[in-house]
Design brief:
Number of strands: 8
CATH superfamily: Metal-dependent hydrolases
Number of domains: 1
Protein name: Cut9-interacting protein scn1
Strand order of the largest sheet: 1-2-3-4-5-6-7-8
Keywords: Metal-binding
Strand content: 15-25%
CATH class: Alpha Beta
Shape: globular
Distance between the termini: 26 Å
InterPro entries: Metal_Hydrolase, Metallo-hydrolase/TatD-type, TatD-like
Radius of gyration: 17 Å
Structural class: alpha/beta
GO molecular function, one term: metal ion binding
CATH architecture: Alpha-Beta Barrel
Length: about 260
């Protein structure tokens, strides 16, 4: 039965090719993060075109590379060109108030993160692409950004809240109301959501069954196999589904999310 990992970084480790050969029932959305790894994601897509969905974007942890010129000013045009060549979605992008630059010990500058996110959301909306969002301790700002995009008619058609770490009430009261309800999918990983099982189970119960996704959020392709089995079992327990029923529903949800146009 098909299994979809909707958010991972397996292009960063050499075991990806062996795992893809050994597990033909597993498909992956491989998320780039920093411009320098876009080509590695594209190459994996070219080798396994039926099982890899590429995601091209700039993670908030790399926002300073725009300021120092490590990421060129042409990044938006380059991103559009990669999408034209390889398809895929926009990601990983988002906001993060918790992480710190390991070189300086300082938080990543937040206002530039907001600008970077808006520019990537604009591209996703313009091209009709789904987007994978990272959000840590910045949900209030994330909501403001999405609501501004909605007012301007620039919301992407589908929005993944990856490894969602907010509350179930926030889902019910904000992300699963109004126009966002039509577009938001909520993804869970054992890596993140296993840390607070009770809260995560309540979040899984709050999400409509057609909008739940699962991911590994891992770099090692080998480790994704067990991680995905664990999160599928977690969702199945929370929703009262059998393992096979969970796999079937989650795979259908993933296919719906990755359709390029409504």
């Amino acid at each position: 039965m098909a299994v979809y990992d909707v958010h991972c970084h397996i292009h960063e480790t050499p075991d990806a090719y062996a795992v893809l050969e050994e597990h033909p029932d597993f498909s992956y959305c491989v998320q780039a993060t920093n411009y320098d790894d876009w080509q590695a994601v594209a190459e994996l897509k070219m080798l396994y075109p039926e099982r890899i969905v590429p995601a091209f974007g700039i993670h908030p942890w790399f926002v300073e590379r725009l300021a120092d010129g490590t990421i060129p000013d042409t990044w938006e045009a380059d991103l559009r060109q990669l999408i034209a060549l390889h398809g895929g979605i926009i990601g990983e992008c988002g906001l993060d108030k918790a992480a710190r630059n390991p070189a300086t010990g300082q938080p990543y500058p937040f206002e530039p993160q907001i600008d970077l996110l808006k520019r990537q959301l604009d591209i996703a909306a313009d091209l009709g692409l789904p987007v994978s969002l990272h959000c840590v301790r910045a949900f209030g700002t994330m909501v403001d950004v999405l609501r501004d995009a909605e007012k301007q008619g620039k919301l992407p058609p589908r929005i993944m809240l990856h490894s969602y770490s907010g509350s179930p009430d926030m889902l019910r009261q904000i992300f699963l109301k109004g126009e966002l309800r039509r577009r938001v999918f909520v993804s869970f990983s054992q890596f993140v959501n296993g840390r607070n099982a009770d809260k995560s189970a309540k979040c899984m119960q709050a999400v409509p069954e057609s909008r739940i996704l699962v991911e590994s959020d891992l770099h090692s392709a080998t480790d994704t196999i067990e991680a995905l089995e664990d999160i599928i079992a977690f969702v199945a327990r929370a929703r009262g589904w059998s393992r096979d029923n969970a796999c079937e529903r989650l795979a259908a949800n993933a296919r719906h999310f990755f359709v390029v146009n409504d």
